[in-house]
Design a protein that fits this description.
By secondary structure, this protein is of the alpha+beta class. The chain has 8 helices and 13 strands. The strands form 2 sheets. An 8-stranded mixed beta sheet has the order 2-1-3-4-5-6-7-8, with helices on both faces. A 5-stranded mixed beta sheet has the order 10-9-11-13-12, sandwiched between helices. The structure holds D-MYO-inositol-1-phosphate. The site of D-MYO-inositol-1-phosphate has 12 residues, from strand 3.
């Protein structure tokens, strides 16, 4: 796909940050034996990736706004456009030496995501999409799965940790979904969960309590691959709400019906 100048800038930034993270990830794998210091090291890796992306994106488009997990938000001179960035989605995986984490970058225009990149640098998988142009994994066009039966479907989710108050709701979700399907995975990187729905690896995904930087890019990639995304509460904007359901269009209503019971 011949991407726009903005998409190419996003891809360049994601690859640069990815290279830096891969280098740090090798170091983290060595640090597993001496846990001391691994947390601080990962925070620094995350911040370094954030700085690389910020310099690249705001260097190229100084008027755009900015929202990122690590460096907060800034309104740009152009208030209609904003970068939404998670430099390292799947931080806990990274910290534990699990190669399942990604850089996530989205461009929002007038409140809508128009370009998206999710880069799994450890596996060199680049997921990207532009509004109306389809979704891609490296050179291959993406399509969501064609599975129609929930009982045959594999879903992904995320669970709240560290004393978050929405644990009972999430356990209730699991209790509803698990008996009705062929499996539920908790992989630990919401951006990749959404990318995998777009790639047909998962038939659907849901999670509560996500931030916009976790999901902005993934929302567009799923939609451009032919999938549906809605907030768990019908009618809400999934990006603002942070509790969302994504799935292939054939299964969506039944899957959402189970979660919304
Ligand atoms: C986290 C991951 C995880 C999800 C958490 C997120 P982070 O993002 O996406 O899968 O369950 O809710 O906070 O902190 O690694 O960028």
């Amino acid at each position: 796909m011949q991407g726009s100048a903005n998409l190419n800038l996003m891809i360049k930034a994601a690859r640069m940050a990815g290279r830096s993270l891969v280098k740090d990830f090798r170091e983290v794998e060595n640090l597993q034996v001496s846990m001391k210091g691994a947390g601080d090291f990962v925070s620094r890796a995350d911040l370094a990736a954030d700085a690389i992306i910020k310099e690249e994106l705001l260097g190229g488009r100084p008027n755009y706004g900015w929202l990122a997990e690590e460096s907060g938000s800034e309104v740009g001179k152009d208030p209609t456009r904003r970068w939404i960035v998670d430099p390292l989605d799947g931080t806990t995986n990274f910290l534990h030496g699990l190669p399942h984490w990604a850089v996530s970058i989205a461009l929002e225009f007038k409140g809508e995501i128009v370009s998206a990149v999710i880069y799994d640098a450890a596996k060199d998988e680049l997921f990207f999409a532009e509004k109306g142009q389809g979704a891609w994994l490296n050179d291959t066009r993406l399509r969501v799965s064609g599975r129609k039966r929930v009982i045959e479907a594999l879903f992904a989710t995320g669970l709240p940790f560290g004393g978050r108050s929405d644990l009972p709701e999430s356990l209730q979700d699991i209790a509803r979904v698990l008996p009705a399907c062929s499996g539920v995975r908790r992989m630990g990187a919401a951006a990749l969960d959404l990318a995998y729905v777009a790639a047909g690896r998962f038939d659907g995904f849901w999670e509560r309590g996500l931030h916009s930087w976790d999901i902005a890019a993934g929302l567009l990639i799923v939609k451009e691959a032919g999938g549906l995304v809605e907030a768990l509460s019908p009618g809400n904007d999934p990006l603002a709400d942070g509790a969302l359901i994504a799935a292939n269009a054939k299964i969506f209503e039944k899957f959402a019906g189970i979660l919304r019971t």
